[in-house]
Records
---
Amino acid sequence: MNNPILQAVDPNTSLKDEPTPATPALAAQQPPDFVYDTTPDPAPAANSSTKPTNGAGNDAKPPPSSSPGPESEPAHLTPEELAKLDAEEKLLSEMRTDLPGRAGVPDGVVAITVAHKLPKDTFFRVNKPNTIEMRMYAKTTGLDTEYYAIHPCMWAAFASIDVLLAKFRLYEILTVDGAHFVHPVRQADHGDSQNEYSRTKEIALEQATTEWVRISTDKANKKYRVFKASKERYPDPLFPGYTPARLLTLCFADRGLLVDSPKHDLFQGLAGGCSVD
């Protein structure tokens, strides 16, 4: 015979006073004390005069407008500035020898400040789009060499006084130190071949279009040696971004180094002051 389980009962408490526990079914039917509405408030109408409060009362400021402001108008060049640009482009077109129907040489463009020598202890890069061939005259005085750009209208005049104009290829260069200049390299012309110094120098300049290089002189073999920097050593170069026409003007026309008339001092000095028909 099983004994009943006895439970101690407080004599001051009546069994009738104990709350009857709610069954799960009845508890599920009880509504919650609070119901949160997650539906977002509708946006105010565009023509509504009611100011949005965003829960902060009547003093709340409306959110800033996300609509973009009016676009600024592009700057317009004056007729004088446009005429100058057109004149520079015309001069470049006349000077270039690498256009169709000229000399059939590779594509390229022109210069900046013309430097006679390349740096031998500094890494540098070349801006390939601004490379051009043109006929020039190199005037050497002592240890200095100055380069003159010769306009095609003067080629025959120089030939009439037995002065040969050499063909040069000019490279726009930027060093790791920030030096920015153009370096001319003489090309094979008038039946002469390019010497070994010029040939190996152009090998270095061609490599410098894609990577940082420096050169050193191999006097025993009369040529240049090329050394490349690691790819992580220096960042990509940032060239000034001059147009070829502007570079031609800055390098030669503005510095008096463009010979386009028999009255130019260079031609007068070579011709002995004689006029040439």
---
Amino acid sequence: MSNYTKSTNFASKDSLSSGNPLKIVKGTEIDTELNNIATAVATKADLNSPTFIGTPTAPTASTSTNNTQLASTAFVVNYITALFPTGSIILWSGSIASIPSGWQLCDGSNSTPDLRGKFVIGAGTMASVFTAIAGSAVTASISGTTLTVSAVSRGTVEVGQTVTGTGVASGTVITSLGTGTGGTGTYGVAYTGSSASVTGSISGTTLTVSSVASGTLIVGQTLSGTGVTSGTRITAFVTGSGGTGTYTVSASQTASSTTITATGTVTSVSMVMTSAVLNVTAITSGSLAVGQYLTGTGIPYGTKIVSFGTGSGGTGTYNLDTNLSIGSTANIAASAGTVVVGDTGGSKDAIVVSHTHTASTNITDPGHSHSIVMSSSNNTLSSTPSKLSTTPNQTGSTESAVTGITAATTVDSAGSSGTNANLPPYYALAYIMKV
């Protein structure tokens, strides 16, 4: 598309003196101007059913706009985002490999619930909406078991918070107040990576550890030992991850195998303090209760209130089952009801209800008899009673006999396998969540 550009300045001819040949308007000049106008007009879109080429732009309307104005691509993205906000879950009939960008399979990863092979039921209504803060963000350093906070950008530093940051050992927790009481100052920390003693050597920027006498090696520790350059720090894991193996160090050098002490010192860096204590500063609606699940910006999926702190339904502190760190965040929601978001239950296999069976037994006795064999010093007698009574000094024994009684008990089996018997007829689709 081109714009019309005038080739001849006709107005300038008016100031020319009579007889000046330039004062004359030539036909070629007029023809050039008309050609320029025709070219510009031909490359413009018509008002009626225009056809655009290139990359035309247009104002981006608000997502609530509903009229005949043009919709820019930015409007479409904003509208779809508003239509399917983060956390939305829909059914997907395509292949798992072709899930759209911005969506994730609900398989328990990528902050999604695991809905594979599950039916979804409605959760309880929203119990409350509130504003809260948890954890803190600071600039600090660590030396041994002392945390020194030089600046606080968010929240309050408290005992029990977990410290995270570059070079900070996993599981580092604030255990006591020093000169700090929530803001800048010193704090005691349980720092599992405060020190370690190892046997190792350094070649270039590679530390090779052959044995560990005590402690754990972490990134950020300062090394000391015979032949080790002062101020040398561990900067990265290579094959080692706290014990024997190789590590990258900050200074290139050569040090023969020796005892090396690693001191847990973290220089001033940005740190985030996570906490399982939520401080509710304002209630918009409803009330909080133990067992409610929380949703909102920065709240991990499935976070649950496990007990009251200083709060008992309104403002105050609440203990959670998850560590988090958020600035003052509005519109956090708490779900209520006997079934809440994140609850699971049910079984795809049928459960046999406890019951008893009645068994019947038939006994058949065909009858039996015993024979008696008697003997004396003179002769052997029969078992005839009349003869037994007239003969002295007789001895005798009975012969054994089997009764022949039989007992037959039968319990008839019934039913079939309960595997998958609790499932109604189904057609499987994938649940996907907007992330």
